[in-house]
Amino acid sequence: MNNPIIIVGAGLSGLSAASLLTKQGINCRVLEARERIGGRVLSASVPNQSDLGRFDLGPTWFWPQYERNMAALVEELNLETFVQHNEGEMLIERFQTKPPERCKMQEHVDARGVRLTGGMQSMIDALVETLPPEIIELETRVKEICLVETGEIKIKVEKTDGTIENILAAAVILALPPRLVARQIKFSPTLPKNLMADIEEKPTWMGAQAKAVAVYDRPFWRETGLSGLVLSSVGPLQEIYDASPINGAGALFGFFGISSEVRQQMGQEKVIKLVSEQLVKLFGSRAETPQAILYKDWSSDMETAVEEDSSPFKNYSSYGQPPAAGEWEEKIFFAGTETNSQSSGHLEGALLSAEQAVGKILALNYK
């Protein structure tokens, strides 16, 4: 095989597919529209204070007792893990005008999620270290995929400076949210109608979500017997968790209860102000002076979500592999957490989908 397998998307599924192909001696290239690797895995530092650690604005946990592929990859990459901190009482916020209630939690430590030291980005960084550096091309947007008479695939890409390039491929792994495939990439010949309908109906996991992380010099709430866990019917954050690193700084992160449309109407500054006010009400005056509040609204990230993803999440049943691709069969393969029915919405689903796509390619003897 002279032409490479082209992988569209440098998130966990795309990078995992590249790793699996490379181990088999199969030539591949990874094309990523963003200026960074990781996709929906994003671990950020406080500007000019990297010593405080990195904090996850995307996926945060995994469960090694259930998610074997994730556990195996973490072990293979020799990454350090620690169990999510949940010791102490939780807070329940029921009313805007009343203080929160403290409640004891009953849980089994074995049911807790596991986090990575340095954030989930540590896994992405370590995975990339196993790949030849030249195969990943950032700021490279796939515009069109054409099946030519010779059976080869011609891919039209655009760089951020406007440069257009045509790349020949033996096959393509589409490792990005299915709705982005439907919305942003032109196919010639067109994909079958039932396939297009299927990928247009797959909601993008996290596509309507946003996360905020308040970073402090230490996890002061633990000193008063609080776990950091909050359930709120008031908001703007409806679920809050301890996001502190294993040592040093403290952090609280939360998922929003207000819709993506309302968040975007408010603007980031107003949203962060509301978050700050809620944390002070919940945790007292020591919550007034965070080192920073990190914020990521995935619904406004054009490399993650489309307009339809702003609607309330539904149609879980659409997750899984798309139907047969007609004349594109054996030429394009779908990966990404939405295309795995077993563990969709999890990092495990991203890994399983990559394994499935590569398995199909190996069965076709692409060498």
Automatic annotation (TrEMBL):
This is Amine oxidase. Belongs to the flavin monoamine oxidase family. InterPro entries: Amino_oxidase (IPR002937), FAD/NAD-bd_sf (IPR036188), Flavin_MAO (IPR050703). It holds the Pfam family NAD_binding_8. Residues 112-362 form the Amine oxidase domain. It comes from the Bacteria.
